[in-house]
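User: Please run a holo structure prediction.
Assistant: Happy to. Please share the sequence and the ligand.
User: Here you go; the ligand is phenylalanine.
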Amino acid sequence: MLEKIEAYLKEIESFSTSSKEELEQFRIKFIGSKGLLKDLFDDFKAVPKEQKKEAGQKLNALKNSATEKFQNLLNNLSNQTESKTENFDYSRPGTPINLGSQHPVSIVIKEMCDIFSRIGFTVKEGPEIEDDWHNFTALNFPEEHPARDMQDTFFINSESQHALRTHTSSVQIRVMENEKPPLRIIAPGRVFRNEAISARSHCIFHQVEGFYIDKDVSFADLKQTLQYFAKEFFGKAKIRLRPSYFPFTEPSAEMDVYWGLETETDYKITKGTGWLEVLGCGMIDPNVLENCGIDSKIYSGYAFGIGVERIAMQRFNIPDIRMIFENDIRFLNQFKSVI
Ligand code: PHE
């Protein structure tokens, strides 16, 4: 019996086929219910006691080897048939890929950066956690300015030395400290204010900061640049600058774009005035330039800060600012077609 097992083992090991029929023959011959293995197991009963152990082990090895061989060959055969491409219909539509979409805030920021890049501005970013110097002091905020109060700012340590930046104007300081004029920078980013959350305001939002520092930069340059932006971004050329106040600009202004009052939505988004409030701006205060080591007798500059969310809401008809931060997939999916 042992010789028989040896012989079958050799036969099994050397067997190979690429035809289904031959493989089926192999299965019937060895593993099938009337196959050789069955016979051997029947014979096993008659094996003398002393030989049972060895014969049993060999028999089991033979059985394993036969089933393994069969399985391997079967797998090979089915792989081959799968990869057969003769009958493949190349005109079939492909499997759709589930594409993501850009966030409405990203879409607006990208477009703003593109518009300013076209007239020579370079994109820069700064940290979201800022120190008092970059967020307030260097920007000419007096010691007692209410914006330093816990009401408005998220301080991150008890000594109040570090806070989540309340505006992107801190990037002005970072760039001015490290680079020499002429500077023409656009700085998008996330900002934080300790404010009550409602449909129209949030404690997190985004700004796009822009500034230009060179010899002889004037308010006329600022106005012209903003006019260009309004035309490119909103497609509207009529703007107005209202006097305003910021500690780091003098004079300061707020810019409105004339939106019109043609539809009911126009009334809603402009609060019935026809004018859409878009950004804060002004001529950089000489104190700020000096704080950063730039000679204010030689250089002057302008700066502006655009609020992103309100513009995104207006552009995409988003009724509630909170939707922008919830990341509900049903909301985000709606921006697939925009880019
Ligand atoms: N930083 C100001 C704000 O947060 C906006 C601003 C930027 C105003 C630059 C003037 C110049 O509202």
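The beta strands are 122-123, 129-131, 162-164, 183-192, 204-215, 239-246, 249-258, 275-284, 299-307.
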